[in-house]
Amino acid sequence: MNKIVVYKPLPDETIEYLRSHAEVTIVDPKQPGALIEALKDADGAIGTGVKMNTETLESATRLKVLSTVSVGFDAFDVSYLNQRGILLTNTPDVLTESTADTAFSLVLLTARRLAELAAFVKAGKWTKKIAEDKFGVDVHHKTLGIVGLGRIGASVARRAALGFQMKVLYVDQGVNERAEREFGAKKVELDELLKTSDFVLLQAPLTKETHNLISTPQLKKMKRTAFLINASRGPIVDEPALVEALKDGTIAGAGLDVYVEEPLAVESPLLKMDNVVTLPHIGSATHETRRAMNENAAENLIGALNGTLKANMVNPEVLKR
Ligand code: DGY
């Protein structure tokens, strides 16, 4: 029987499913050395939120499959996994719609100042009729620029174009013909997107190329009335540069679900700014979607160990050896 390590809390039914196919060891990755020790004789592992690199995996000599309960896989050193012939699987489809909901919520939250004004009411400060100093700006018919038109980006584009009659621009390595045809999305250069969008939405994976993609020069290209929305990965934005741009009015505001360090430090200047909405990395955090991600990741792991998995492989090339 294959041996697998679970390094993230999973619901009982998912553990039961895994136990019906393999010998399961559950570890708390916060216990020093526990994960490395457990991986030593494991064939596979499932979890999220832990750096999986040479240090963690060097002594895991039997390891064949890692299954991440996420779409993003920036915590994994994929070139090291390739060298070792370890397959990595992820959960790309099941979280698309929920994550797109979160991203589009950030557009509404920032433009209409919803979080700030809800807090204002709860604080008992609503004592007279609302005036201009509390007005937001419209979302409908504005321009949304999406950096990274993959599954989630395209899903946000659909909400924007069909639901809010927004003009959609995008930057991507490929051409998304469906989004162009169905949502009128237009592929442009990053500079044009920054200069003309009312909302710049970052929806790209974190890679060497996207690390600090948005820093002072890029922020300066944005309209002073524009908002930056990041629902992908924190390090795509140079955070100190963003703080400066928000302080000096280079841009109007930001809606953030992700940060360079998570959880965001309580002393972060971002928490003190009225023109910033800060969510606690909840892109896919609904009961339904998280359940689907857990199930999907468990099935990926068992399918990969049995040699029957057909999809959700990050580095399928390792199987060709
Ligand atoms: C993902 O699936 O990558 C989400 O951001 C959760 O980490």
Describe it for me?
This protein folds into two domains: 3-94 and 287-316, 3-Layer(aba) Sandwich (Rossmann fold); 96-278, Rossmann fold (3-Layer(aba) Sandwich). The protein is built from twelve helices and twelve strands. By secondary structure, the protein is of the alpha/beta class. The two termini are 23 Å apart. Helix 5 crosses helix 7. The site of (2R)-2,3-dihydroxypropanoic acid has 6 residues, from loops.
Give the gist of this structure:
It is built from twelve helices and twelve strands. The chain has 321 residues and is of the alpha/beta class. It folds into two domains: 3-94 and 287-316, NAD(P)-binding Rossmann-like Domain (Rossmann fold, 3-Layer(aba) Sandwich), CATH 3.40.50.720; 96-278, Rossmann fold, CATH 3.40.50.720.
Q: Which features does this protein show?
A:
Rossmann fold; five-stranded parallel sheet; binds (2R)-2,3-dihydroxypropanoic acid; alpha/beta
